[in-house]
Amino acid sequence: MNFSGKRCIVTGGTGALGAAVVARLRAAGAAVAVIARGAAPGDMDFSGVDLADPPAAAAAVNRAVEQLGGLYALVNVAGAFRWETLVDGHIATWDLLYSANLKTAVCASKAALPHLIANGGGRIVNIGAASAAKAAAGMGAYAASKAGVAKLTEALSEEVRPKGITVNAVLPSIIDTPANRADMPKADFSKWVKPDAIAELIAFLLSDAAGAITGALIPIAGRV
Ligand SMILES: NC(=O)c1ccc[n+]([C@@H]2O[C@H](COP(=O)([O-])OP(=O)(O)OC[C@H]3O[C@@H](n4cnc5c(N)ncnc54)[C@H](OP(=O)(O)O)[C@@H]3O)[C@@H](O)[C@H]2O)c1
């Protein structure tokens, strides 16, 4: 894949999956800006942005597009995870995951859309979760927020299809990240999907070959 001349924003590009996505797109020649809440070290990277805050998200996206000189694709990787039962958990967790997983994608997409429209078309890729299809115990708040990402993907894909913008979501199961290895030390890590494999799928969705794919919710599960 050759992405030279393609201008992309990756939210949460400092995290385990986000870093793999940024590396894959840059390796293909894309100009990539990262927007993240924590420190994001590069020239094209925007730190300290809470993407669930609409004005902050809009300001960061606008600054990123100005630096990039336009926008072809937005990859919404920002998100968070909590395992918590309702009996022992906190109502605040539902707000937290709604904000981190759904509202960040909504705010970043709303901010990016005028630029994608000005570009004459483009791509949005969201990160849902396989666990949203059938939530296990303790997964209610997370799965509800990721089910929201799936519905955002479907509705927005229909809305912007006439403008030549595709909107798709990838649905990982358990990703092989340092955090998951620390949380589940006895698991068979070899079964987990690697960040690089998900980055490859996202790169495909940004490629010319995927121009006719929109509204798709694509599971990527490794051998789980
Ligand atoms: N790990 C898994 O097994 C798994 C499975 C299915 C789906 N997913 C999804 O895949 C995505 C990446 O997961 P990951 O494991 O790579 O997570 P991660 O390492 O925790 O990275 C998440 C990134 O999102 C950023 N972020 C979170 N809330 C934000 C906000 N309000 N504004 C701006 N940035 C924000 C984080 O920034 P800070 O670090 O500064 O907070 C971080 O850069 C998430 O959407 C996650 O739900 C993960």
Describe the 3D structure.
This protein has 224 residues and is α/β, with parallel strands linked by helices. It is 42% helix and 15% strand. It has a 7-stranded parallel sheet with strand order 3-2-1-4-5-6-7, sandwiched between helices. α4 (140-160) links the parallel β5 and β6. The radius of gyration is 17 Å and the shape is globular. 45% of the residues are buried. NADP nicotinamide-adenine-dinucleotide phosphate binds next to α1 and α3.
Looking at the structure, the CATH topology is Rossmann fold
Taking the alpha carbons of the first and last residues, their distance comes to 28 Å
Strand content: 15-25%
Range of helix content: 40-55%
Outline type: globular
Report the sheet with the most strands, covering strand number, pairing sense and barrel closure. 7 strands, parallel
| Average pLDDT reading | 97
Instruction: Kindly name the structural category.
Output: alpha/beta
Bound molecules: NADP nicotinamide-adenine-dinucleotide phosphate
Topology, number of strands:
7
Spell out the helices and strands N to C: EHEEHEHEHEHHE
Quaternary state of this entry equals: single chain
Number of helices: 6
- Provide the gyration radius in Å: 17 Å
- Would you identify the regions where 5 or more consecutive residues have pLDDT less than 50? none
CATH-assigned homologous superfamily: NAD(P)-binding Rossmann-like Domain
The assigned CATH architecture is 3-Layer(aba) Sandwich
Number of structural units classed as domains: 1
Which strand order spans the largest sheet, edge to edge or round the barrel? 3-2-1-4-5-6-7
CATH level 1 class label: Alpha Beta
